[in-house]
Known about the structure:
The structure is a single chain. By secondary structure, the protein is an alpha/beta fold. It folds into three domains: 45-258, Aldehyde Dehydrogenase, Chain A, domain 1; 264-447, Aldehyde Dehydrogenase, Chain A, domain 2, CATH 3.40.309; 493-519. The protein is 40% helix and 18% strand. The chain is built from 16 helices and 18 strands. The protein has helices at 43-62, 64-81, 83-94, 98-123, 160-171, 185-198, 215-223, 236-247, 271-283, 300-314, 336-349, 386-389, 405-413, 429-434, 470-476, 501-519, and strands spanning 23-27, 34-39, 126-128, 137-145, 148-152, 175-179, 208-210, 227-233, 253-256, 262-265, 295-299, 353-356, 376-379, 396-402, 420-424, 440-443, 464-465, 478-486. A seven-stranded mixed beta sheet has the order 12-13-14-11-10-15-16, sandwiched between helices. Helix 6 (185-198) links the parallel strand 6 (175-179) and strand 7 (208-210). Helix 1 crosses helix 7 (215-223) and helix 2 runs antiparallel to helix 4. The longest helix is centred in the first third of the chain and has 26 residues, at 98-123.
Amino acid sequence: MSATAADSTAADSTASTTAVPAEFASLSPRTGAELARYPVHDGEHVRGAVRDAAAAAEWWDGLGFAGRRTRLAAWKKVLVRQLDRVARVVADETGKPFDDARLEVILAIDHLGWAAGNAQKVLDTRSVPPGLLMANQAASITYRPYGVIGVIGPWNYPIFTPMGSIAYALAAGNTVVFKPSELTPGVGHELARTLAEAVPEVGRYPLLTVVTGFGATGAELCRAPGVGKVAFTGSAATGRRVMASCAENLVPVLMECGGKDALIVDADADLDAAADAAVWGGMSNAGQTCVGVERVYVVESVAGRFLEKVRAAASVLEVGTATHEGQLGPMTMPSQIEVVRRHVTDALDKGARAIVGGADSVGQAGDDGVCSVRPVVLADVPEDSVAVTEETFGPLVVVNRVPDADEAVRRANATGYGLGATVFSAKRGEEIARRLRTGMVSINGVISFAGIPALPFGGVGESGFGRIHGADGLREFARTQSIARQRFGLPVPVVSFRRPAAVMRAITGALRAREWFSRS
């Protein structure tokens, strides 16, 4: 689940003339207090980390599926045992409620277990038919690890999202160098610490190495010799810079970028469930969810009742403070508050109606950097408003009326993004879902696809390409190798300069005869 367009976590291919500090502080979004300090790793350090990871990859690959599964299962047990400790770091660095952080860790653990348990079934060598003309060959497909995977993670879901790459990459036989967001470096270190505790060999063979810093550190990871693939989560703008850096060495990339996800409410929808989904999907994690609900298209005949239910559910939500947790945390990145403010004021200036909150719901970032946004629900927002066209990444939900579900689909697809979507309909859910230009859809639920480890996760268009999770996620971190093995020699040579002319006449005749019989 990607971070927003203001994300500065990843590679920036432009050179900077500003002096780079030796270290930086991780700050609490709730209090502004310093949590810890971390080094800003330079290119030499990153390249060394990749070299060490490459050496460890040979050992890790050599363990085979069973050996890796045993060690990843041990990691899972450590994470389960230390769930609250890890979740506390997530909550402290992001500002999200502690139980939301716990849920994030639980989801990450579930995906780790699925990846470890299914890697052999998905990636083991398999035979394929050689075909009539190559009947003397045995054909097989095998999946080989890239070696070292560079993972550049976001700050909004700092353990769940990168684990969608880290766990699957490790299960596929790779080692990982992880660049967490500069806003959540402690979560990255918790992952590395727990893995080292679970796998004693990590002291000699670094399976998961954490490098910290800003965009330049991410750029160094993209360019480091020996990186086999880079998995990036963040904005499309930053993703383009990551791709440019990776292109220097023709390093393949996986892009999980932003979204402007729509929720469609059909005339026969369960309105209570749809309203609850719209509020939770749009407001949880302070709206900082790439697959969160940002736009709602509700059929006119039920719009009035739906809006009232949304108003009732959203108006009671409270934003947490230093002393009170609330249902929503503060904005993790202070600069994001100005994006939310611009979207709200632009919509209201263009004639939108405030159902919950309004321009005064968007707080100011204080001297300590703490900032928050109370829930905002706007109705009848013009489709050319930035609240409709751009990713907001805050607790703002736009609700617009449409004459029917067909118009809802048209508007939902009228964006460059294509990540997730939600449909509430008693009878037409599957039909509507298949017409949406998105990588994922939840029917009569919200963000359900993210919690199912077997389902691939990813988008199209401005939302990126490639997949994490599921069998597709495992294959994303392995290169396909095709093998043809001759089982017996042919009486006459076919792929040889010694081939007689009569051989091709015989093959051509056999092909034509087969086609004739197949049409009969």
